[in-house]
Structures are given as C-alpha cells and as structure tokens.
Amino acid sequence: MNIDTITICGGGNAAHAMIPVIRNHFSGKINLYLPFGEEATHFQSLIDENKLLTATLGTKKIYGQPDKVSRYADEACQDADLILMPIPAFAHEQTLLQIAPYLKEEAIIGAIPARSGFEYAAMHILQNQKKKKVKIFGMQTLPWACRIKQYASKVDILGKKNSVGMAAFPHEITPELATFLSQILDLNITSLPNMLTLTLANVGQIIHPGIMYGLFKGKEHMTYQKETIPLFYQGVTKEIAGTLKLMSDEIIRLAQRIKTLNNDVNLEYVMGLQDWLNYSYKGSITDNSTLQTCFNTNNAYRGLRAPVKKKNDDYIPDFQARYLTEDVPNGLVVTKAIAEIAKVDMPVIDEVILTICKWIGKEYIKGGCLKGKDIKDTRIPQKYGLTHLDEVIIY
Ligand code: NAD
Questions:
Q1: CB-based burial label for 256 (10 Å; 0-12, 13-18, 19+)
Q2: pLDDT digits (tens, 9 = 90+) for 97-113
Q3: Going by CA atoms, what residue is nearest to atom 23 of ligand 1?
Q4: pLDDT per residue as tens digits for the range 183-197
C-alpha cells in the first residue's frame, strides 16, 4: 500500500487527536481539510502562532501539526492517497460531495466512526462522479474519547479502545489497510468481513438512543440540578437494560434472517450487546453478570452524565444531542430500512425511533413505513436506489 499523503477532514475533537497521533507514526505529508465556516483561517493562524498541536494521553504528551491546511477541496485532497473523515455522520455526505471530484483515481476514503449506511452514501457519490477505483472503509467506533482543550493547540485523549473493528470495500483491501491504519493510529484493529457488519454492529445506535429513551420517556419535562442530572451509563436500570436487550435481539434476528436468505454473508461479528461490551471493555467492567451491570460497573463509563442543556437555573434533557440527531438517522433508521427489505419486524426499535422523532422534531416513519418527510436526511439504502437485499449485502 503506497500512501505518501493523508488528508484529515474536519477540525473537531477527533481530528485534533488524530493529527499528533498520525504525525508520530507516519513520515509522509498530512493535509487538513477545513471547509466548515472560518475553521481553516482560524486553525492556520493559531498553528502559525503555537507551532504544534499537543495531545495529552495520561502522562504522555505527543506533538504534531498538518503540513497544509485548506478550506478548498482541490488543494486539500488532490494529492491524497488516503482521506480520513473523523467527523459526525451528518457531515459525511456533504464532505464526500465536496471532495469526490478531486480524488485521485485510486484514493482510499474512510469514515471514523462510520456509523450505519456510510457505504451506500459513499458508493453512490463516487459512482456519480465516475470514481470507480476509489476504495472506501469505515471504523466501528472512534478509537479515543477526546476533547479539545484549546483550538489548534491542545487536545486531551481521555481513553483509548482496546481494539476497533474496520471494514473496507472492496473487501480484499481490508487486511493490508488494517495493518496500515493500525500503524498510523497506534491501535489494534480487527478486520471485519464487510461493511454491512459496521452498519448492523453499530452499537451506538442501540446504546445512545436506547438509554436516552429509557431515561427520559415520560419524563421529557423534568428539570434537574447539576448534581441530579442522571448518570448516563451508571443510570441504566433493569428496565432500561431490558429495552436495550430487546433492541439488540431485534438486530441479531435481522442478521440471522439475512444469513438464512444468503448463507455467503459473514455476519459473525454482529454480536449481542452484552457480548460486545465484554469484548470491547475487557478489564474495565468489574461485574459482567448482566447487561445492566456491564453498564453500571464499566470504569470507562464512570461519572458520565446524560446530555442536558441549561434552562434558567436548571438543566433539561438535550434532545438535539448527537446521541439522537446522529445515531437515529445514521443508525437505527438505516438498520430498520434493511429490516424492511429483509421483511423482519422491529417493534421495539420502531417504538424508540417514533418516540425520539417527537423529541427531535423529525418524521422518519409514517404509517409504519420509512416514508416520513425527513427520510431524505437519513442514509437508508432505498434513498440510493438499493431496494433488494442482494444490493445491500454486497458491501
Ligand atoms: P466534533 O463536534 O468535535 O466535530 C465537529 C467538526 O466536524 C467541526 O469542527 C467541523 O470541522 C466538522 N463538521 C461538523 N459539521 C459539519 C458539517 N455540517 N459540514 C462539514 N464539517 C462539519 O465531533 P467529534 O467529537 O470530533 O466527533 C467526531 C465523530 O466521532 C462523531 O461521529 C462522534 O459521534 C464520534 N465520537 C466522538 C467521541 C469523542 O470523544 N469526541 C467519542 C466517540 C465517538
């Protein structure tokens, strides 16, 4: 794999963490593509002043900076062999549309994390742009929990995953790409057999909307003091864990149904939620006897509270949080769309989507089907003309 230039898209928490990490493990050129607002000018002027971006990981500090910063897709992407998109899923399509015309013929482009349905949007845009040789990939989660401390200057990497799943299309490039990404991101990467696994095994689609549903359904108008804001993961009750289990079971049933319809599709990594937690947070969970205790006793989740916003002197649930606005249209709704194609019912996931739609002011489901007026803002395969299971499972 001949990768001399990497372009990182976006200037959020994840991009800030990625720049110094990659700089320490890759000797080629790093471009930063910042089309959003005034980010490029702002970032460039600060990096000129500060010189280096510092990432703090425990007691370790690493440094790095991009070689080029640009708000223009041609300047940032035309020499890139690998393009990384560590940005929210709702910005993937817009970013792909901007950069696709300038991609090298054999470039590789990936989303970190992919969420669900990235493959349908990406392949649709690349095919329209006649970029037939461009390859795509996605990672199952962001490798780090990270927060910008000071824009273009300091970022805290608060935790790093033991291992992150990655899948690519065409599938043949996955092992070599996994090796390269492991090296530049300083990470254990598990090669996944296909991108359908990323879509179905996007655990954020269960955990984030599912816990929000459990915490706030029927309590939408509750107000909280700072110290009474519900703990997100430690606040998972037996009842909430029950809902999460039912959501997870519905996705497992969908995977089993797809296997029945086409035995060649490998979906062995689409695990039940409790199995995934045990696999991903090995060593960090002190009591793994039930799904509830896997959340309540996971040290990586300790102290994290539900997303809220300030209202006067109180706090109220934040229904515009990413946990809903990213994970429902780019997660649960995509999975439900595949279930529709495979003719699998998902009553619990439907109930969660319908409740959250009221909170976020969107209509994805109408008359029991994915025909709501806001379905165009999701990444369901049907939006890209993919209506048969054979077309969906090839990625
Ligand atoms: P962020 O909010 O910090 O990223 C914002 C950046 O994304 C902006 O600065 C901009 O550069 C870009 N962006 C946003 N909207 C855009 C748009 N409409 N068009 C173009 N660019 C746009 O997000 P983050 O914390 O870096 O997270 C990136 C992804 O990683 C998200 O999917 C998030 O859910 C996921 N994630 C983050 C963390 C974390 O600890 N930060 C942990 C797990 C998963």
A1: middle
A2: 999 999 999 999 999 99
A3: 12
A4: 999 999 999 999 999
